[in-house]
Every structure is written in C-alpha cells, then in structure tokens.
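During the reporting period the student researcher (J.K.) took over the structure-prediction task from the postdoctoral fellow and processed the backlog of single-chain submissions. One of the processed entries is reproduced below for the supervisory committee.
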Amino acid sequence: MTKIGRNAPCPCGSGKKYKQCCLDRETAYQQLLQEQRDAKLRAVSRLEDKYGDAVNEAAALYFFQSKENDMQARIAELSENMQLAVLACLHDWLIADARLMLNGEWVQASDLLLGPGGPLFTTAGRRHIEELAASELSLYEVLEVHKGKGLLLRDLIRTNENPAFVHEVTATKMLVVWDTLGARILRRDGMCALGGGVYPFTREHGKILAEFLAKTVRKGVAKKYPKATAREIITCCIINAWLERITAPPSIPILLDARTNEPLLFTTDRYRVSDWRALQDILNAQDEVEREDENVWTRAERVNERQYRSLARLERLPSGMLEMECRTEGSADEARAWLEKLAGPYVSHTDRETEDPRETLLDESEVRPRAKQAESTNAVPLEVQQQIMSEYFDEHYKSWPAMSLPALNGKTPLQAVRLKNYRPKVVELLKQIENGEAKRAGETGLPPFDIAFLWERLGLTRE
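J.K. obtained the following structure tokens:
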C-alpha cells in the first residue's frame, strides 16, 4: 500500500490535507488509546501492589473459578497471544466487577480506584476507568461490520436493548457478520466503544449460552441464586464458558450421514466366497446394483430422476476375499443382511473393521500448515477459484430450499418456514451460512457468496 503524504489530499474526500483531517484524527485517537491503556495498567498495578492477597483470592474464586489453580495451569499452556487475551479480560474484570474482602468487608475494586486515596489518572484515563466501572459484560451478536469504523451489535441476553453501533477499528479486522462474543460496551456522550477484553464464541456455543442466560434473567435470579444479581450471574457464566472453551483440548465435531442421520463410521465387512461365479451372477441380476468394473459393484438407491445415493461398495480382492464398505455401522448391518439373504450359501462373514473419519481430520489438521505452504507455490489464480466456487455455490444454494435437512428433522427449508417452531431454525441456518462465508472470505481472499436471494425466497428478514 502506498503511504499517503502528510500534505496530500485526504482520501476521505473532505478536500482538506491529510495532516489536517484523518491523520490528525488518527493521531488523536491513538493518543487516547494509549492514555486508556496506561490508566488500566496503573489501576491494576495499584490493586495488586496494595491489596495483592485480596486480588489474588478474588480472581481465583470469581474469575478463574478455581481455588486450586488448575484453570491457571491450563491457561499457562496456551499460546502467548491467548494468555495476553485472558490477561486483558482479567484486567477489565478487576476494574469493572471485582469485589475484594478487606478487613472483613466486601469492597468494590472500582471504589478503591476512583475514591479518595486512589491513583492519579489523566482526565481521559480517569474517564476510561469510570466507563469500565459502569459497564456490564454481556453476549452480543454482530449484525454489521463496517471495516475500519466499527460494528453493529445486538445484545442476546438483554433483548429489549436496541442494537448499538460500537466504534472499534481493530475488531473489524477479525469479526464477521453473525459472530457472537462476550464484551463490555463503554458509553460516552452518545458514543459506544468496546472494553479491552472480549470473549469470542462459536455461533453454536454462543447461542446455547445466550438462551440459558436469557432464560435465567427472565425467570429472575432471586429464587435460584438469592445472593447473586443478574449482572453477577451473566458475568460469571460468560467468563467461565469462555475459559473452559479455550483451555479444552481440540475436538472434532460429530459427522452425520445425510441419509440415516447416524454418526459417520466407515465400516468394512470381509467375506470368504465359495463360488465367485455364482455370486457375480446374483449381483449382476440386482436392479439396485451397478457393476463399475470386473471386480467392483455399487449398491445404490434412487434419490430422484437424476440422482442416486450409494449404499455399499463391494470389491473382489486379489486374495479372493470380498470387501463390502459402508458409511455407517447401521448401513453396514443392513447391507450385511441384504447380502446374506441374496447369497448366503456362497459367502461367509469373517471380520469387520471400522474407521472414524474424525481421526483422519485430526491427523490432517496437524499437517495442514505444511500442506498449505506447499500449495502456495502452485496456487490456482484467485479469479479462477472465484469462478469455480461461485458456480458451485450458485447451483447448490438454488436447490437448498427444497433439500431435506437433518437439522430440520428431514423437512425442507420451504416447509419449515411455514411452521412457527421451525422458522427460527431456518433463520439460524442462514446465519450460519453467512457467517461461514464471511470467514471463508477472510481466509481465502475470495468474496463471500451472497445468499440474500435465499432470505427473500424464504420470506425471511435478516434480524
């Protein structure tokens, strides 16, 4: 990127010189951020230096929620960047929410910072500490991303709150539409900004957490947690859920077969064959069996006039054995019963072998960085990739509304939107698609596929 000269016209189109317009504002903004960072470090240092034991005890019990320090030990194994992210969240929590046990009484940490005897702050620094102290941690959904400017966020717990536009530059480089995150919104003179610590969640995890917390707040916390406020419950749950997520060992999601909705488990059954000629005649006579070559057959079922779905693959091995491969154990049991009914006198089952595709995915994830580096030297041009992906997605998503989906209990999106209980599920699926497309665009440099036509075709609004 070419550097803009100080005396050059400002790229914003104001007609002023760059140094008198956006450069001046950017300089002032960076100076403000530095004053805010300095104020937080000064605040945290004062708390730790003067009330160290009380701070450590409060953090262990109410932030890490682990008096035996096992959570801190797990965090110590994270990358340096993740440890810094946890530290930023901890510092915000200390200023905004921490209560310290001093001389037998609970004292709000922010009162110790802002009251008599507190540390000296600049005007901007003190105001930032006051904003943090007044802020509340909540769970938000990203409605819009304005690169280099800010985010439009909707509160998923306090649902009566209007969406807030948050002025935040750094987060616009990392977040995409429909992302969910725990955050504090700092309010000043009608403007909003994010606190320093954020708690990113996957859509699935964030949705479950938001529903739980919204239900808890709606019912009232007094009955179940008589000594805790709604703010304390929300803060505690968001922090705990995020720490558990980032310190948990990596997991591969359960993969489901589109036909049976069973977990994918590639299953291979082996048979001794006493008369191959007789078995071949039997297989060749079946309408649902297609012979691929001399030693391979596929059993399939018709999906529609143009499509078939494979049920089993049968292959004659050089050893004379027969192997039959299926995608799930249930399918393998059904295929075994089918084969033994057809050719029982000629086949004898010997053994079964299974392979979980998630193990393969986990193995591939360890070598993916090296593979990606190797591919970069022989990469397909971006314009070609874009054309291929665009054609694929266009064909796929045009037929998507009429597809039976396991997530909708076999209903198509067109059927589901007519049902009150299923309509929100279709909205969530569309959000997941858009969220995934936005992330793919960030990773590949290709533009996201626009599914606005799906919202329109299904009569739904992006809300």
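The committee noted the following: The CA atoms of residues 264 and 328 lie 5 Å apart.
J.K. will present the remaining backlog at the next meeting.
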